[in-house]
């Protein structure tokens, strides 16, 4: 065995490399990665997050060896040969070689380059691996392991799409195994960056590395074995879930943190305004790019390309340097934009629509007399659920290897139900991180209200969303109608839980029946014994209220329905965040209105109109969501007292 050279790594401690791997590491194209931060501009938030793609690549190569050794120990040494291990480590070393400075931001967070120019595409990889010192070093390694065309092999494997991987697997291409070890679901790439990012940001989170011991092979398919003599290996399954939780935590604390988002939006805008191509950026490191943009009036050109919009570019980069960030003028969450998130992403995230995004930014700026460079739309991709949930596993009593997410959806017994609940919850939490924002230069902060109103018009005026919203409203109306009919024929109405009925209708869940309407009352939500006892103590109030009810208008859900309809009329004008808060309180507000009659209802709706009309700053976002809820509850109480 050739002499090994040790590198001391902060995360993995000693990492060993052979002379051929050392030649790859010493190549200038590989050394360039030492100046490309793994987390982009996250160091503005976490000052110690200065780690680079260079040490990450070393860590991935080390982790790949650990995975291969675990597979060998679970089978035998020959299951993955030594040349195959060395090819896998070569793949790990160069898997990030195509990244530009701030590449994740410019290609994934707020893309400005077409997909065919991304870091793992042939066009980009050729820049670093063809006719370069790095390509020569990789070629020498390839000859030593019997792969004279190793550069071609590496490029082919790195640009595999998911479908191409599956097709290659069916054809028996062994390379797919090496690609899975380095960069698939739970892989060397993920296992390294989770440890590295937590370490350098100071977050006290880790996963238990025993999860690696569960890796096995079925043919050329690597998987995690959750089957222990027909029983679920709870310890390993728990580690997978813990790893998914850790990935979510990093998303919440780092990857999608508001400060990182706005800084990423600004650097993306600066590079976009500069007009520089991906080829001009390819040789640079993070600080080199920042310096060139910050001094664009002096440098003028980069790789023969003229830097455009010099003054605007310099201003934005200098603001980043001084931590003077743009202000968030408008944002919309995935819940609020549920009907048209896909449309927003296709219009304002996809690199193919950069011109459309720029057009809207220019329109918003023109509306308030600002410059186009002073408005930035930041719309991340909505596929934020961790791909680690798609790891292939061997589940007890299941002869096929399947993705954990698929297994959990099939709910194999109690363990399957448990898996489904945990995986589904984590997927939802990942998706909840999605937020589209419009950032503006602080110089135009005085016009925030006008910008917000214009954004509300633009981003809610999407035709696809309207049809979905109308469909949802119709479903709610049908649910209310069916539930009211069921209450009308029920003999024991006092035991029916009106709040739960309202919540059920708001979630558009119609009552499922077998024998027709006569069977419906039996499955209506009921109050608990304790709740009924509390109700009996209010009998005098009930009698007083009943005396006031108007004939034909005494169905409690009918009153609640009218009250909710009245509130919804005002919801349309509310800011998104406040609207969400009030929506969440609708069931409890309806429950509070359970004892109201027709007269109180009419008074409430009148007083509610007056109350909202009197809120002077209603349209200026000065009222909190809780303030709106309190206003509604106070009006409800006043209507009851007045009646």
Question: Any overview of this molecule?
Answer:
Among the domains are: 5-212, Hypothetical protein af1432 (Orthogonal Bundle), CATH 1.10.3210.10; 465-642, no CATH class. The model is unreliable at 463-471, 512-520, 538-555 and 616-623 (pLDDT under 50). The longest helix has 26 residues, at 463-488. It is built from 30 helices and 13 strands. The protein has a 4-stranded mixed β-sheet. By secondary structure, it is α+β, with helices and mostly antiparallel strands. The termini are far apart. A hairpin with a 2-residue loop joins strand 5 and strand 6 (231-232). The radius of gyration is 30 Å and the shape is flat.
Show the helix and strand layout.
Elements: E1 5-9, E2 13-17, H1 19-26, H2 28-31, H3 53-74, H4 82-94, H5 103-109, H6 122-129, H7 133-144, H8 150-158, H9 162-170, H10 175-183, H11 188-201, E3 215-218, E4 221-225, E5 227-228, E6 231-232, H12 234-255, H13 258-274, H14 278-281, H15 286-294, H16 296-299, E7 301-302, E8 305-306, H17 310-321, E9 327-333, H18 341-348, H19 354-367, E10 375-378, E11 392-394, E12 402-403, H20 404-410, H21 413-432, E13 435-440, H22 448-460, H23 463-488, H24 498-506, H25 529-536, H26 539-548, H27 556-571, H28 576-592, H29 598-613, H30 625-642
Parallel strand pairs: 4-11
Antiparallel strand pairs: 1-2, 3-4, 5-6, 7-8, 9-13, 10-13, 11-12
Helix pairs in contact: 1-7, 3-4, 3-11, 4-8, 4-10, 11-12, 12-21, 13-17, 20-21, 23-24, 24-28, 27-28, 27-29, 28-30, 29-30
